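Lecture notes, unit on protein representations.

Consider one protein chain, 81 amino acids long.
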Amino acid sequence: SEMCIRDRFEIITKVPPTLHTPLMSGSNAISGIAIVGAIISTKVGGEIGTWLGLVAVIFATINCVGGFMVTDRMLKMFKRK
């Protein structure tokens, strides 16, 4: 288990900066799909499902917006001044 965690950390830290932006874009696309799924889940399962779906929409939206902010910051690092 410990070896597995260290290996994952090394893989993540060895990603070159030029690949971070495309990877973040892919992550944002997945977050967008999660938002759609969360919206759909608000209509399933009665009142508890509605509240859980609302919480899921909020968290997925925060994740998506945060990912776009990080991606934007990375892209600004590559711009010439």
